[in-house]
Specification:
The structure holds two protein chains of two kinds. Chain A has three domains: 1-41 and 299-387, no CATH class; 47-288, Rossmann fold (3-Layer(aba) Sandwich), CATH 3.40.50; 393-455, no CATH class. Chain A is 50% helix and 10% strand. Chain A contains 22 helices and ten strands. The chains are: A alpha/beta, B alpha/beta. Chains A and B meet through helix 2, helix 3, helix 4, helix 8 and helix 10 of A and helix 1, helix 5, helix 6, strand 8 and strand 9 of B. Strand 9 of chain A pairs antiparallel with strand 8 of chain B, so a sheet runs across the interface.
Chain lengths: 462, 192
């Protein structure tokens, strides 16, 4: 049976490195602040969110027709379109394309989908060298870790960590952790790969049904280098990435980088439509659980996601636990609501990694009701007996007590007395996860009900 | 059943009730907005530079990049014959400065729209260490909605909104211009 990810246990390891967690929290909150300044500067921001949501909902509710339109136009452009039901099929299709052309070296830009499919180890086991060319993704590849954030993959690392990774892999000076030096070293190391690669690969931010184009939004220039140099280009595209028309890009391109990094646009918004003369272009359309999610009444709207990461940057739990603690390709609030569709048991602890504060929902550019879905997943998990025993017992007891005013009042009084008199060891016992990093506040001298009965005794009607 | 037919059939079985397509407005800027000023601010914000220089282009480029050894122009305005389409893209690996002419600019973001036809060889826009982009100051649209409604522009086999030079902030959020692609981008405003 698949092992259940223990999010809080994994997070405690991250929290133990104090300077890391403080920087992580500050850096992501800074991105949130920049996002607020950018969105606040556009009077039409809230209208754009509504339009983005409507366009996505319209597309998802007509998805089959738009995918057929995309396929027909992409094919007419000279691209070859493939379909993959799951991760294994995706990896086989990609390997088949590479193997048939004798490709040995693949340069690729960041793609959450290829991470989701576990493509890199699959290809590497078959003798293909895979070069991640995005700086953050490359750091993670060289360190043998998955990305910890969908937009900034190595955001949990400090410059010293990167210096350590680079010195032992690409031969930088171990004592030099200057950020410019590290980035320049990666540039110098990567460039020859672009020149000699047999194939290039990107993901996709959007796929345009009307034109058959694949749109990729990046900052580093690595996606374009991956496409414009090798004789073979493969784009892996989740089926939910399709949008109907070119003009719809106006909405999404205006929102994506503002939501993600708080910049008005990515440095590059690239539209790949036709292979250049002598080049082959392949597009792999991937399901891998998306169709099943489309049929879930409570959860299908999570497919609207444009992977901006705004919900992660704002989430107090994500900022203080780090993306790797989720044990999944997608972390943070969006991960919490899509990971259980991949494996309910494995990811059953994730919907509890939330305070249900709703901040994720309020920053989401496509208006996904993220915190409502988190709450609904908790219900699904409880109903399917996927709660850990401690939580089950606690919930059962809490349900009984909170369901009865008499029991609740007795418990409140007992807690107040208990907190004042019980020894620390008993209050902060190993089952009280809440008390591990926090002090339980002092209990008030009086409960609200006691105060109410004393001060607001119901008056008789005149 | 093929993967394609299987996926499409299951989508049809799972599609939620139809939601109508919304009308998308163009969000026109307030009357009297200075698009050129906005464009200049946008380019600067994203790490690029705008110059309004008259005179021979080669002199302007020399002044911008005095140490450049290999300058490669995709437009006849660059002086010599333009870059030949169809040459191996990797042959541009040692280009110091690329020169291209953009179709139009976007005021809101400071972006320029460039296609494969404008680059001659698209790799020029990424292998070059520096890029000089010529732009007609009268060819600036207000925002991305206006840009994406320009008929014909998006028929290109490849096209890119380029906004400032390549950049990264993947290590501790420290912003670096010149990530994997061009290290600098200068927009030279001049009519063709």
């Amino acid at each position: 049976m698949t092992k259940r990810i223990d999010h809080s246990e994994a997070a405690s390891k991250f929290i133990a490195a104090k300077d890391h967690v403080e920087f992580h929290d500050r850096r992501l909150w800074d991105l949130r602040g920049k996002r607020d300044r950018e969105s606040g500067a556009l009077p039409e921001w809230e209208s754009l969110r509504t339009l983005a949501s409507q366009v996505k909902e319209h597309t998802l509710t007509h998805l089959a027709a738009y995918l057929e339109e995309f396929e027909a136009n992409a094919t007419a452009n000279g691209a070859i379109v493939h379909w993959a039901r799951d991760a294994a099929e995706h990896n086989q299709v990609v390997h088949g394309i590479l193997a048939a052309r004798g490709a040995r070296v693949l340069v690729k830009s960041k793609s959450m989908l290829t991470d989701e499919c576990g493509m890199r180890p699959f290809l590497e086991a078959r003798g293909i060298e895979v070069m991640e060319t995005d700086l953050g993704e490359r750091i993670q590849q060289l360190d043998g870790e998955p990305p910890s954030h969908i937009v900034v993959p190595a955001v949990h690392k400090l410059r010293g960590d990167v210096a350590r990774v680079f010195s032992s892999t690409i031969g930088t000076d171990a004592g030099n952790s200057d950020v410019h030096y590290l980035a320049e070293s990666q540039r110098a190391h990567t460039r020859p790969y672009f020149l000699r690669a047999d194939a290039g690969m990107t993901g996709a931010n959007f796929a345009i049904a009307e034109t058959g184009a694949v749109v990729v939004c990046t900052n580093e220039g690595n996606a374009d280098l991956s496409v414009h140099l090798p004789p073979l280009y493969i784009a892996s595209v989740g089926i939910e990435k399709v949008i109907p028309k070119v003009e719809h890009l106006g909405i999404f391109v205006r929102m994506l980088s503002r939501s993600a990094l708080g910049s008005p646009i990515t440095q590059l918004t690239s539209h790949f439509r036709r292979p250049r003369p002598g080049q082959e272009m392949h597009i792999v359309l991937v399901d891998n659980g998306r169709v099943e999610r489309l049929g879930m009444a409570d959860f299908w709207s999570s497919l609207k996601c444009i992977r901006c990461g705004a919900c992660m940057n704002t989430c107090p739990v994500y900022r203080r636990s780090g993306g790797l603690s989720y044990g999944a390709t997608y972390s943070g609030p969006i991960g919490v609501i899509i990971d259980p569709t991949f494996n309910l048991r494995k990811f059953s602890s994730l919907p509890f990694a939330s305070t249900l504060n709703g901040s994720c929902t309020s920053v989401c550019p496509v208006r996904i009701d993220i915190h409502d879905q988190i709450y609904k997943w908790r219900q699904v998990i409880a109903a399917r007996n996927q709660l850990p025993i401690v939580k089950q017992e606690a919930m059962r007891a809490a349900g009984k007590v909170l369901g009865s005013p008499r029991l609740y009042r007795a418990a409140a009084r007992a807690t107040a007395t208990g907190l004042a008199q019980l020894p620390r060891a008993l209050v902060y016992n190993p089952l009280n996860a809440w008390g591990r990093q926090r002090e339980v506040p002092d209990a008030p001298a009086q409960t609200f009900r006691e105060w109410y009965l004393e001060n607001r005794k119901p008056r008789k009607k005149p | 059943m093929s993967a394609r037919d299987d996926i499409l059939a299951r989508i049809r079985a799972n599609q939620p009730a139809a939601v109508p397509m919304p009308e998308v407005p163009a969000f026109d800027p307030p009357a009297g907005s200075d698009l050129l000023d906005q464009f200049k601010a946008g380019v600067a914000r994203m790490g690029g530079k705008v110059v309004e220089a008259t005179g021979p282009l080669d002199r302007i480029v020399r002044k911008l990049h005095p140490g450049a050894k290999r300058v490669c122009s995709a437009t006849v305005e660059g002086g010599g014959p333009p870059l030949e389409a169809g040459i191996a893209p990797s042959s541009l690996h040692d280009v110091d400065v690329g020169i291209v002419r953009a179709r139009f600019g976007v005021a809101e973001t400071g972006s320029v729209w460039l296609t494969e036809a404008d680059f001659g060889v698209s790799a020029l826009g990424f292998l070059s260490q520096h890029l000089v982009v010529l732009l007609d100051p009268s060819a600036i649209v207000a925002n991305m909605h206006h840009a994406y409604r320009l008929r014909g522009a998006f028929d290109a086999g490849y096209g890119v909104f380029m906004t400032g030079p390549s950049a990264t902030a993947d290590i501790e959020g420290v912003l670096i211009h010149g990530a994997q692609g061009i290290r600098s981008l200068v927009v030279v405003l001049r009519a063709p």
